[in-house]
Amino acid sequence: MNLKKYIIEKSKDIGIDIVGFTGCNRLDSLNDYLIERKAKNKETEFEEKDIEKRIDPKKVFPSCKTIIAIGISYNVDFNESVDFKLKGRISKSSWGEDYHRVVKEKIEKLIKEIKKEVDFNYEYFVDTGPLVDREIAKKSGIGWYGKNCSIINDYYGSFVFIGHILTDLNIVPDRELKEKCKDCNVCIKACPTGALEGPYRFNPQKCISYLTQTKKDIPYELREKMGIKVYGCDTCQLVCPMNKKAVKSGKEEFIPSITKGYIDIEEIFTLSNKQFKKKYGHMAGSWRGRNILRRNSLIALGNMKNKENIDFLRMVLKDKNPMMRKYSAWAILNIDKYLGSLIVKEAMKFEKEEDVKKDMECLLKYFQNKN
User: Fold this and answer.
1) Where is the 4Fe-4S ferredoxin-type domain (predicted)?
2) Which of 47, 70, 119, 201 has the fewest C-beta atoms lying within 10 Å of its C-beta?
3) Environment class of residue 193 by beta-carbon count within 10 Å: exposed (0-12), middle (13-18) or buried (19+)?
4) 241 CA to centre of own chain
């Protein structure tokens, strides 16, 4: 039988939109770039530190011969409005069910189908493995690199979740696709923080998607660029011409029927951890926990520039969590630095933690010197 054809057909039956095949050669074209990123301290805490494991499939799965890459579009249409006032935006990647679970389930179904025809050994990953999955996707012909470093498929665009299976099967690889951005630089110009430092040059530490997930302190000047985004950032994809003509996804799993694409900011400060998990635990953005989304919500409130929100923020200034007190102080000052300075100075009289007090002092100086 033609195993490759069989896998492609079964993938479609399972609901996998794109499938491609590549060998298990080292991803050497990335080596110098990853070394440079490491030297310039542009890595994130989420990625594998051992560069060899990032570029050599056989370091991950020694008997690897073929990698099966899959892509599932999450570019669903949804425009329902929400009935709450203070809202923080959620990236499309976290609109519906956690894509890790959805893609994992489809990969496991595909593995079972392949097992019906041939016994084989494998390892599979959905955004959790050490290898650079976008490079695997490119080498397998699933798509090509856009200048925003996203993988773009000619048919589905870049709103595509990627997974891959390392196997000991012998399957003819597909051809790589060449980049097609040509002279277009729309994504680079649109990036709010300048994380896209040039064509195919990406600084993840400045990316809003990363900033909404890190537990590290977010630089003041970058907070101002985050808008009302509380998880993820779709800007560079939304402006991409390839996505404007891409076929929409019909995957109901990714429709945000519960959140409608937003966090209710007032509500998230009233939810217990148990209640948070019950309402938001289904989505990918919940993995960082309630407090990180609360922190991001405070940044969103600050960026709304609405003085009516100051009363709410003053209550958060008394929160038992030090991080909430620090970020609510920033938000108040970002709304009104003159009124905010009075409020923050008063809060400092009762602040018992030196770390928080020191941050408030830095905030006052920062906004005092800001035009």
Assistant:
1) 171-201
2) 119
3) buried
4) 20
**Kind and range of the H or E run holding 167:** strand 160-167
Average model confidence (pLDDT) across the chain: 95
The residues of the chain scoring below 50 in pLDDT are: none
pLDDT at 37: 86
Q: Can you state the angle between helices 290-304 and 322-335, rounded to 10 degrees? A: 10
Q: Give the distance between the most distant pair of CA atoms in the chain.
A: 77
CB-based contact 227:48 (threshold 8 Å): no
Q: How many CB atoms lie within 10 A of CB 284?
A: 22
Q: Is residue 10 situated within a structural domain?
A: yes
Closest C-alpha among 286, 333, 275, 343 to residue 93: 286
**How far from the centroid of its chain's Cα atoms is residue 263's Cα?**
16
In a domain, 90, yes or no: no
Which residues pair with residue 161 across a beta bridge?
72
Q: Is 338 exposed, middle or buried (0-12, 13-18, 19+ CB in 10 A)?
A: exposed
d(CA 100, CA 5): 26
The pLDDT value recorded for residue 341 is 97
**25 part of a folded domain:** yes
In single-letter form, the type of residue at position 261 comes to: G
Domain count, the chain: 1
Amino acid, single-letter form, for residue 75 = N
pLDDT at 45 (0 to 100)? 86
What is the set of active-site residues?
Answer: 127
DSSP per-residue letters across 260-326: TTEEEHHHHTT--HHHHHHHHTTSGGGGG-HHHHHHHHHHHHHHHT-GGGHHHHHHHTT-SSHHHHH
Number of H helices, E strands in the chain: 18, 11
Give the residue among 347, 352, 314, 353 at the shortest CA–CA distance from 364: 347
Q: Tell me the β-bridge partners of 145.
A: 151
Nearest one of 314, 2, 360, 41 to 204, comparing CA atoms: 41
277: which 2 tokens?
Answer: 């998990």
Give the domain range for residue 156. Answer: 3-79+96-167
Cα gap 288→292, rounded to integer Å: 6
Q: Is residue 196 part of a domain?
A: no
